[in-house]
Amino acid sequence: MANAPTTPGIAPARLDPQTLAAHFADLEPPFGPHEAVVAADRCYFCYDAPCVTACPTEIDIPLFIRQIQAGQPEAAARTILDQNILGGMCARVCPTETLCEEACVREFAEGKPVEIGRLQRHATDALMARGIHPYVRAAPTGRRIAVVGAGPAGLACAHRLAMRGHDVVLMDARPRIGGLNEYGIAAYKTPDDFAQAEIDWLMKIGGIETRTGVRLGETVTLEDLRAQHDAVFLGIGLAGVNGLGVPGEDLEGVRDAIDFIAELRQAEDLARLPVGRHVVVIGGGMTAVDAAVQSKLLGAEVVTMVYRRGRARMSASQHEIDHAATAGVRIITDAQPVAVHGNGAAQEVEFAYTHDGEAGLELTGETFRLRADQVFKAIGQKLAGVPEGLTRAHGKIAVAGAGRTELEGVWAGGDCTAGGDDLTVTAVAEGRDAAEDIHAALTARAAA
Q: Quick check: 367 and 351 in contact, CB under 8 A?
C-alpha cells in the first residue's frame, strides 16, 4: 500500500464499505437443494460421456450428477473428491465453460450445457458443511516425503500420500499455504475465506506437517531435502513475473498484477486498498481479467485491458472476457506497450498497434496513449529458477510420466513443469498422479 500517499490518483476508499461488500460477494450463488435437482435432471448421463474426457481429473461426472438427482449430494461429493481433492475450489475457479461444459451434449444440442461446475460446488459444499472428511489414512509406512510448494499440486500430492500412510512435510515460502488458490484468484470467486476452509478440511486426513517461510534454494536446498526424505515433490509454481521491457516500467504506480491480486486477497478491509482512477492492465489472460475486474469493483473510474494480439488469441476464456466487459472493463486488442510516461509516477501508457507479419508480431508504427495512474503487468509468469540438477524445458522443469524428474527420488508437478496448461484442475491431477507414482516407487523399493 506504499503507493497510496505518494502516487497521484491512487487512493483507498473510492467506494463505501456497503458497496464494496456487494461488489465482492459470491460471483455465482450456490444452488439450493431443489435447484440442484432440477439442474441435475438435464443431464443425459451419457455412456462414455465427453465431459469426463474433457476433465483433467477425470471425475465421473454423470455418476455424481445422478447421485445429486437421487438426493445424495454427499455421495456425489465422494465421487468428485476421489479424483479431485480440491473439488470445492475447482468448482468455483475452473474454466468449466471451456472444459467439461463445452463438451456437454446439451451444449451441442441446445447451446446450454448442464451446469456441471455449480453442481460440483453443491455436492462438495454439502459435505464440507457437515465437517465430514471421508478418507482415512492407511497403516503407517514409516516413509517421510517432502512436498515443496503448498499450492493445488502440492496439496493434492500431500493428501494422497498421507492417505497412503506416508508422513508428509508440506513446505511453502509464503506465510499461508494454498498457493494460487490463496493468493492468485479473484476475491469474488472465493469469498468467505473458502480457500483456507478447504485446506482446513483437507488437513483432517492427518499425517501432514506444514512449514511456511521455506524457500527452495534459500532456506533449504534440494540436496538437503533428498538426503532427509524418502522422496521429494516439487510444486513450486511460477514465482517470477515477465517484465514489459519498455522505458518507464519502473515508474511508481506500475506493478505486477499478481501482487495486486495477492494483496487484495489478504486485505482485511477492502476500503483501505488503494486503486487508481484510470487503470491500465496489460495482458490477455485470466490474471489480467482478475486484476481489471477487481480494479473496477474497487472503484476505478476507467479500466482498460490491452492485449498485443487479437481477441481470439487471448488466453482468458470467452466467459471471463465477457464478464470483464460486463463489469465495465474496456478491452483493446492488437496493441503493444512501448513506453510508460510520467514524472516520477505513471501518467500515461503509450501503445503501438500490431499485426501479424511474416516475421511474427510486428508494430504498425501507429501509436496511441492511454491515461493511467495505475498500471498492472499481466503478461505471464515464469519459473524463478530451475533447482540445481534438474533439466529445463521451455523455461520449466522437465518431467516424464507421472511427474518424474531425472533426479532419483524427485518428482514435480503443476505450473512449474513443462507441458501443463496452468490450470488449478490440471495441477491437482498432476499432484495426485505424482503421489501415486511416489507411493508405487516406495512400495517397490521396500519389497526389493
A: yes
Residues of each domain in the chain carrying CATH 3.50.50.60: 144-239+383-447, 243-380
| Number of other residues whose CB lies within 10 A of the CB of residue 286 | 22
Checking DSSP bridges between strand 346-357 and strand 231-234, what pairing results, if any? unpaired
Would the pLDDT of 8 be above 90?
no
Question: Average pLDDT for residues 197-218, to the nearest whole number?
Answer: 96
Which ranges of 70-151 does DSSP label H, i.e. alpha helix?
73-83, 87-93, 100-103, 105-110, 116-129
Packing angle, helices 33-40 and 116-129, rounded to 10: 140
- Give the separation between CA 407 and CA 387, rounded to whole angstroms: 11
Residue with C-alpha cell 522505458? Answer: 247
The structural architecture, per CATH, of the domain 33-129 is: Orthogonal Bundle (1.10)
237 CB-near residues (< 8 Å, 6+ apart): 149, 151, 179, 180, 414, 415, 416
pTM of the model: 0.94
As a whole number of angstroms, the distance between CA 443 and CA 141 comes to 9
> What is the pLDDT, as a whole number, of residue 421?
74
Q: Write out the three cell numbers for 190.
A: 472465493
Q: What is the pLDDT of residue 290?
A: 97
Backbone Cα Rg of the chain: 23
> Alpha carbon of 118 to those of 30, 115, 122, 181, 245: distances in Å?
7, 6, 6, 18, 41
Amino acid at 185: I
Q: Residue 447 — very low, low, confident or very high, per pLDDT cuts 50/70/90? A: confident
> Rounded CA gap, 6 and 224, in Å?
44
Please state which of the ranges 248-257, 294-303, 418-427 shows the lowest mean pLDDT: 418-427
Over 70: is that where the pLDDT of 6 sits?
no
pLDDT recorded at residue 7: 64
Which CATH superfamily does the domain covering 243-380 fall into? FAD/NAD(P)-binding domain (3.50.50.60)
Q: What is the pLDDT of residue 420?
A: 67
Q: What is the CATH number of domain 144-239+383-447?
A: 3.50.50.60
